[in-house]
Design brief:
This protein is mainly alpha-helical. It has 18 helices and four strands.
């Protein structure tokens, strides 16, 4: 009960639908159904208000609510369990609870995409170095970098929506495993609970936990994306980069070093990623050797999946305002982009467009970079005479061609870092939202 008590609303919701169906089919007298409905409504209201405390000594939330109902309305409460087992009862409760939680996580992801999108709109012209192997590679915009995470989180939303479709079938009426002799209307119960239909096999109905694995897999990927973003925020906020300044509310100081501003929230999100991975692996391991149908091992599903969804919710809840209040330090990004010769590819392209084979251009530019390093200057500062020693194809226009603004602006391919392309990406994300 210490784990499944969080499903008290779903347990009562499922029982109300089950009771209504029992009355509709004539399995229970309508007078009993009315008492059950009124009694369950009172229990729900009392738990929500705090007037009724959940008894931690009860075996599980199902038995606690049934016992409380019987205490309040007498024998009619004992009839609620007609044509039902705890096996299908817990299965419907879990689906209802995780469906609700999935919707919550999707709303949080939508809020995070919105925040990254707004931050991207503010930084379409902000130039920074793009990296491969954590080495400065080519100039990009901060907007495009942020939009890369928007794309990840949009995929996370798609995956959750897809997983929710498969989860949204009703197992109630499967009973222990073989169904029941009572003339149930399972489609009525399913519709009343907002499911797309009733599960087609009663054995699968009580033993299926695929949806837990699917959701935990989705949650693990969400945490992967949050962790990657966290790692970059941690790097960017360090003195070595200083690309962003985090709001004080999302950092802490050192106990002995007064100058420190540690990105603790980002580090905690990065750390909690492993926890969600563990929840996924625990569920897979629990399921891997189970024969059909229900086994007591399956009680282990709740602790793992509840922990996973709660961790994701908390991490998203702190991540959204952290990104929203994060201040980019544009001059530092630009200064870093000017170092590292990240316009070297554009210089090679300059020669190629003038007729030099790319491999020759690549070699010539490599030699120019080596000269710049030896002289302690950048390609922008290299005299034209030095360029012409490598090739007569170099003209005065080379300096315009290798300016960072030009390097970024002339990238026109779909999805690229060019200003026009980034605006298309922003429109795409807005359309998805």
């Amino acid at each position: 009960i210490q784990f499944d008590k969080v499903m008290f609303e779903e347990d009562i919701q499922g029982s109300l639908a089950h009771a209504a169906m029992l009355g509709k089919t004539g399995i229970l007298p309508l007078a009993d159904v009315e008492k059950i409905t009124e009694g369950l409504g009172g229990i729900l209201e009392d738990i929500q208000s705090g007037a009724l405390a959940i008894d931690e000594k009860a075996e599980d939330i199902h038995m606690f609510i049934e016992a409380e109902l019987t205490k309040r309305i007498g024998d009619a409460g004992k009839r609620l369990h007609t044509a039902r087992s705890r096996n299908d009862q817990v299965a419907v409760d879990l689906r209802l609870y995780l469906r609700k939680k999935t919707e919550t996580v999707m709303e949080l992801l939508k809020a995070l995409v919105t925040v990254t999108l707004e931050k991207a709109k503010e930084n379409v012209q902000t130039i920074m170095p793009g990296y491969t192997h954590l080495q400065r590679a080519q100039p990009i915009t901060f907007a495009q970098h942020l939009l890369a995470y928007s794309m990840m989180f949009l995929r996370d939303m798609d995956r959750l929506a897809d997983a929710k479709k498969r989860m949204n079938v009703c197992p109630l009426g499967s009973a222990a495993l073989a169904g029941t002799t009572y003339p149930l209307d399972r489609d009525y119960t399913a519709a009343k609970l907002g499911f797309d239909g009733a599960c087609m096999n009663s054995i699968d109905g009580v033993s299926d936990r695929d949806y837990c694995v699917e959701l935990e897999s989705c949650f693990a990927l969400i945490m992967t994306h949050l962790s990657r973003f966290s790692e970059e925020i941690i790097l960017w906020s360090s003195w070595e980069f200083k690309f962003v300044e985090l709001d004080d509310g999302y950092t802490t100081g050192s106990s002995i070093m007064p100058q420190k501003k540690n990105p603790d929230m980002a580090e905690l999100v990065r750390g909690k990623t492993g926890r969600v991975y563990g929840d996924l692996l625990a569920t897979l391991t629990m399921l891997k050797g189970l024969p059909l149908a229900y086994n007591k091992d399956m009680q282990e599903d709740k602790e793992a999946v509840f922990d996973a969804v709660e961790t994701v919710e908390k991490c998203l809840g702190i991540f959204i305002p952290m990104v929203q209040t994060m201040t980019p330090i544009k001059e530092n990004m630009l200064a870093a982009a000017k170092k590292g010769f990240i316009n070297a590819t554009d210089l090679a392209d300059y020669l190629t467009k003038k007729g030099m084979p790319f491999r020759m251009a690549y070699k010539a530019v490599g030699e120019l970079v080596a000269e710049c390093i030896a002289k302690g200057i950048t390609l922008d500062e290299m005299p034209l005479s030095c360029y012409k020693e490598k090739s007569e194809l170099f003209e005065e226009d080379v300096y315009t061609e290798i300016s960072l603004e030009t390097c970024v602006g002339k990238r026109i391919s779909k999805g690229s870092t060019g200003y026009g392309s980034v605006k298309e990406q922003i429109a795409f994300v807005e359309g998805k939202l």
